[in-house]
Amino acid sequence: MASWSYTYHSGVYPSRKASLLSPDLNVANKGDVMQSLIKLYHIESRQPSLGDNTGDLDRLKKVLCSSLQGQNPVVPFQRVAPVAKAFRQSGFKGYAVVIHYPNGPQLVDFLAQAPETLVGLALDLGTTHIEASLVDLLSGKTLARGTVENGQLEFGTDILARIHFAATKVGRQTGLDLLHERVIASIHALALELTRRIRRKPGQIMALCVSGNTTMAHFFLKQNPHHLCREPYIPVVNRPDPFSASELGLDLHPAAIVIVMPSIGSYFGGDLISGIIASGLDQQEETCMLIDVGTNAEVVVGNRDWLIACAGAAGPALEGGVARMGMRAGPGAIEHCTIYPDSGKVEYQTIGGASARGICGSGVIDLVAGLYLARIIDIRGKFRANQPQAAGRLLEQQDGLAYVVVPSEETDLGEPILLSQVDIDALMRSKAAMYSILATITNQVGVSFHDLHRIYVAGAFGKHISPRQAIILGMLPDLPLEVYTPLGNSSLAGAALMLIDDEARKRCTDVVAKVTYLELNVNQEFMLRFSGSRIIPHTDHTLFPSVPFYGES
Amino acid sequence: MASWSYTYHSGVYPSRKASLLSPDLNVANKGDVMQSLIKLYHIESRQPSLGDNTGDLDRLKKVLCSSLQGQNPVVPFQRVAPVAKAFRQSGFKGYAVVIHYPNGPQLVDFLAQAPETLVGLALDLGTTHIEASLVDLLSGKTLARGTVENGQLEFGTDILARIHFAATKVGRQTGLDLLHERVIASIHALALELTRRIRRKPGQIMALCVSGNTTMAHFFLKQNPHHLCREPYIPVVNRPDPFSASELGLDLHPAAIVIVMPSIGSYFGGDLISGIIASGLDQQEETCMLIDVGTNAEVVVGNRDWLIACAGAAGPALEGGVARMGMRAGPGAIEHCTIYPDSGKVEYQTIGGASARGICGSGVIDLVAGLYLARIIDIRGKFRANQPQAAGRLLEQQDGLAYVVVPSEETDLGEPILLSQVDIDALMRSKAAMYSILATITNQVGVSFHDLHRIYVAGAFGKHISPRQAIILGMLPDLPLEVYTPLGNSSLAGAALMLIDDEARKRCTDVVAKVTYLELNVNQEFMLRFSGSRIIPHTDHTLFPSVPFYGES
Inter-chain contact B72–A102, Cβ cutoff 8 Å? Predict the structure, then answer.
């Protein structure tokens, strides 16, 4: 079984080769991939004289130009005065700071001494949380890492609510103005905290790469999200050009480059492109799959020759959004749970070991799989009230039965933690949707599940779920467990690679050009498969030979 | 004799060929040179659909890219929302507005209908006045033209005073802040007035080209002018990269491109580069000369193969800045004057035909030449008090004699207009400096005056002076008068060409790379020649065969 606890927590991001060969390898070969978006060029110029009346900035650019293989660096207007001044004050020698934009180099700063680090900020712009890492653009090392709540939560917990809020007027501002302000404020808070930890200032951050779903990218860029959720679901922009931090009013270095991960469509965002980059899906000889599950399930299948992607509503059950006692993965959330099939005894484990406060997505999957194996629920996910293993744990409630996961005396809240029939029904729809998506996309490209060399599972879902339990439910295909590889926060990891790995930026462009997007909203096959998937593990139980089938009961 | 009244007053700028062949030709062949810095591209795109989820802006860029021969247009961040919105509102068809920057195309606007004109603003940023023309970037036509006083005058009438003022603190601002604010305010006022005349708004100006001396360019760009007037006289920047109007806070179209004419050094500004472009000096087979005279005399000699330039202090006499009754060329200034050699009778002509209020540079030259021919002054420029032609016109004053040009009863002021010995002495130094500069630069490149096919004389000096009178004084070489060609405001004309003629922009880059600058401050030859030039017409009077020499008197 793969190491499920793996995340990119270490000081150095894995090289792309390393990320393919072993998810545990976290020391990169510096010479291999650590080329910076921003480069320092050592400059030593002649002193100005009566016989050489070249302007200060022209003098610097002239010397620099030869280091840039004849490319003429552009100096953004606001940087003319500070760069020229620093060059003169340094005695016309030191280090030119050049940002390599796609359309050419920009000279943005001049330093008398070579700095030890050049700080970049990678951001995973999540709907609920914003996670960031500071990276050293010179060495590729991670300098700090942290998370803040997305300040937009006040205006809606889910994407759709925020899209609607964006269109409202709030005094003299629009909802979009406010959503934009909040996400920028959250980013500023995080940047301040992380730079403080390494005794730097946000003004020293020279590059930012933002990875998020398409809607979050729109809010960050202050673009109208109106059409994102309306057929035919067209973004304002999928591939924004890089720009300067000052253009967006970001409190970073005023000339810091801002890169927003490109998206493929409204339902296939930059976070997924990051996942492809971080997993190396686009470079593999053998066909692999990438799964990212939130309210939507986003799936990519492919290899170095082709990539196909789709997204479908998986329902919020997998995020812990529907179960009444559901919660997002966080302290006190039941993330794993075992029900002994013979005794019905329940053991559980919470995030951080805290008293149980609710159940997160992986916990719900474990629970429902356990209930099935203990035959407390049947193949349709309905409670079997007389099953002895459920004795004392089933309560009759207004809308049906509920299973007591944790009795009230063990919880933090003084109330029991329950899993109701309604909750299970929601999960059954989610698991059916999930499997149908995977089956449809593979079938569309003529690939069988057994052809998949690896299945990368991104994010909190990948980090917390047990693939075995998901297989029991028929949510994930019945493959050897080592095929399933958790990626951790690949949205963040991909963003960081964009900052420190030239090859990653090139790959990103190629990936966006290469991905074929399969629209499931109009897909007949998906609808048919969905019906067949509403049984545990599946109507065609031969698809899940490792899972006991209790259809005869 | 060439047409001395020629200026670029007509509706269309001469094509570059036309400017060489005939200064009177003012109708350009549109197909020949009228290529725009900004181009419109007709776009007609497929409508978005479920099967084509390309983002709005990506859709536009994709279609545009093929019109740009595969070049990928960059959309500046602030233009993403308005361009995408306009594209959608126009039903995904219309006209993309693309600015061609040196490092690639920028997509800055989208119009449902093809506009009749695309407005550009050409500016001559003079120390005392700012002159501008609005040009149509599509047809090359001039739409309006006007002048305002430079709002910086309050902080110093001359460049040196303003450079010193720039370093002062004025409350929380620096002098530089104020100088910058004033010149921007003056430009705004002029842009507002000119656009009003054609029923447009400044926000519709899509391009600005600014031409001025190096100090004025520094003030415009808010760059520290400190070193401009201190040996070794090094500008902060000679060749600023083009930038967007919004970066400088200009009230034009926010994405308007701002081009500042490059300079060669502190004493050789963008106004001279404009002069080279407007005159076509850089394209001629035969060697020509360009003279621009203000407080400094700036001179370029060359042809299509080489260009050499120098600048030297000519003294303010030629601008009317020293003569006590001196004034800049303007209403009431005596611009031409005849003294009948036999009778001593004086006839004069004022600008605008107004009552005489003072004497401008060309008037002073006419006067002193007339005084010499009437033998009222000798070859050293000293009054000959007993000369009968001066009868009744010489007054004894505290610091010597003064000549009554206009008696008090004919003036506006109730006082006579006088030309004093001190004034004449100043002019003598100026004319000596001028001739020495011309002799030195030609000698340095082994060219004789008689090798010069044409001598272009820029600005007000070229417009107003009579070359014949300047020759009599020994200020300009004794060449056939048709060699002398006035350019009018070539600083403005060059700026306009930069906006409407692709070739002009290319030439500008070539010119800046090609010009060799000759430093006269350390030139021994110049100092020697200066001494020999302080005689009318010259110590070696054989250099001026057409001028009577009264050295024996």
Answer: yes
